[in-house]
């Protein structure tokens, strides 16, 4: 009981003294028996394999004779762990609560185990200790070294034997619980158990990647090993098998020059599992130079029954290489045969190819573009190995358009914007002719019909004509019957406005045909 109170006090002191975000107690777990049996000298051929009885140990009168008990215990949860303490614990149902019971490492047991066919008694692990209090008696044996050796040898379970330190003389039979106890103070207990205190050594971090800003999220990340900042954020995913026990993690980052000379390191703040990051400070990296970095995981926990802070580390990741490139590309060169710069070019609605080239830059990988006035249209196009690309755009207005283009380099740097102005042309105004009402002359008379004939005047793809008399109702006729009859109502000057319409629906310039009615 004194030991229990001492450990409780140490634990309370630990909680008060330890910074809650820096270190936590080591992880703990327990395993129960896989199988058990006991043997009796008075009935030397009897098997009690996985009996529902209590485990009998020592010498007795009722029942009479000498008894020994065996338990196969699971140690598999300790594989891959750093074991601090392992304790075999049994709960005494009846008998003297004093440390005169020995725990032995034995050979395997099975249904054939009897007094005459006992497993080998390999190693005496001592009489252990007892904790007596609150109407309970616990027997405890520290077996840390034994479990470490067994785990290192690949063992998945161990078999233990309980026997009295002296099986002659005074009769002192003990009965140990083999299933569970519903105790008024301790609650429901499974027994016997193997109790472990351990730490799980962190695994190597995964998904090491560079973020281009100070965010610690998964994005944005560079698509290549070239980064557009001299203060990149390094990040990786850290897993923590002991998180449920309060164990927190850090990620230690290390960066070096291209030859492997370490230039600096930093550790992320202790936190739960997930993505951990650090930013390389300003002034350490130089534009145009290549560097490498790596990361390992480190956990933070408290040595059992002490105030000592400990940390275990994973192996390092492989070196990750990157090159600093903070120099943006220069102005791109833009050309188009259909729509020359600062000139009137192709017919409105005609698709035109615009070619981009990198100018003085040598690492352009794409171009961002936007067309204003004639769209809008915007997008990004990937460049070829020589930094060249092209897009096809269709202007929709017949006045000045401006194409804006920026080059983007391999590190994601965006260069200055180049403006490329051009003007699409319209189809020419159609020709108009009338025998009754000649242009700019007098003819016909009020109420007299007159035919007007329209022709394309070199316009392309004409499918129809539109016209109106004196800004009145707008009418339309197909191009294959380009003659209309107009009847002026009054004498004096009149105006017929005519335009062609091409196959894409664009209008030509308008022809103003003036005539005088007698």
Automatic annotation (TrEMBL):
Keywords, sorted A to Z: Signal
Signal peptide as annotated in the record: 1-25
Gene3D superfamilies found in the cross-reference section: Immunoglobulins
Annotated InterPro entries: Ig-like_fold
Entry protein name: DNRLRE domain-containing protein
């Amino acid at each position: 009981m004194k030991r229990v109170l001492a450990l409780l006090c140490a634990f309370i002191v630990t909680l008060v003294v330890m910074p809650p975000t820096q270190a936590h107690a080591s992880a703990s777990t327990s395993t129960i028996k896989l199988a058990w049996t006991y043997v009796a000298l008075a009935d030397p051929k009897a098997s009690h394999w996985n009996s529902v009885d209590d485990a009998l140990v020592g010498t007795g009168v009722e029942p009479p004779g000498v008894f020994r008990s065996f338990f196969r215990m699971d140690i598999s949860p300790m594989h891959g762990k750093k074991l601090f303490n392992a304790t075999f614990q049994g709960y005494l149902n009846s008998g003297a609560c004093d440390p005169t019971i020995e725990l032995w490492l034995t050979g395997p047991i099975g249904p054939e185990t009897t007094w005459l066919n006992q497993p080998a008694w390999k190693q005496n692990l001592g009489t252990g200790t007892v904790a007596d209090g609150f109407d309970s008696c616990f027997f405890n044996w520290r077996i840390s070294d034994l479990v470490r050796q067994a785990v290192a040898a690949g063992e998945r379970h161990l078999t233990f034997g309980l026997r009295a330190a002296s099986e002659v003389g005074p009769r002192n039979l003990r009965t140990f619980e083999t299933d569970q106890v519903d105790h008024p103070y301790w609650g429901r207990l499974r027994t016997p158990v193997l109790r472990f205190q351990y730490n799980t050594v962190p695994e190597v971090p995964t998904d090491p990647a560079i973020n281009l800003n100070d965010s610690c999220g998964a994005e944005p990340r560079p698509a290549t090993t070239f980064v557009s900042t001299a203060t990149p954020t390094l990040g990786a995913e850290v897993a923590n098998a002991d998180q449920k026990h309060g164990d927190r993690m850090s990620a230690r980052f290390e960066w070096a020059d291209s030859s492997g000379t370490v230039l600096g390191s930093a550790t992320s703040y202790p936190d739960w599992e997930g993505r951990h990051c650090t930013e390389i400070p300003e002034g350490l990296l130089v534009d145009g130079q290549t560097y490498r970095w790596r990361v390992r995981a480190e956990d933070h926990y408290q040595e059992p029954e002490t105030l000592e802070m400990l940390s275990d580390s994973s192996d390092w990741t492989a070196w990750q290489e990157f090159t600093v490139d903070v120099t943006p590309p220069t102005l791109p060169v833009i050309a188009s045969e259909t729509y020359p710069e600062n000139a009137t070019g192709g017919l409105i609605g005609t698709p035109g190819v615009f070619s981009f080239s990198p100018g003085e830059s040598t690492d352009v990988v794409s171009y961002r573009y936007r067309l204003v006035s004639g769209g809008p249209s915007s997008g990004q196009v990937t460049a070829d190995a020589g930094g060249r690309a092209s897009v096809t755009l269709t202007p929709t207005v017949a006045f000045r358009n401006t194409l804006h283009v920026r080059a983007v380099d391999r590190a994601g740097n965006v260069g200055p914007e180049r403006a490329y102005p051009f003007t699409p042309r319209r189809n020419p105004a159609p020709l108009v002719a009338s025998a009754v009402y000649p242009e700019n002359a007098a003819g016909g008379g009020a109420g007299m019909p007159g035919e007007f004939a329209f022709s394309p005047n070199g316009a392309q793809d004409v499918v129809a004509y539109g016209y109106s008399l004196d800004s009145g109702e707008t009418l339309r006729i197909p191009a294959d019957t380009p003659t209309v009859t107009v009847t002026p109502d009054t004498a004096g000057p009149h105006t017929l406005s005519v335009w062609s319409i091409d196959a894409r629906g664009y209008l030509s310039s308008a022809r103003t045909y003036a005539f005088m009615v007698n």
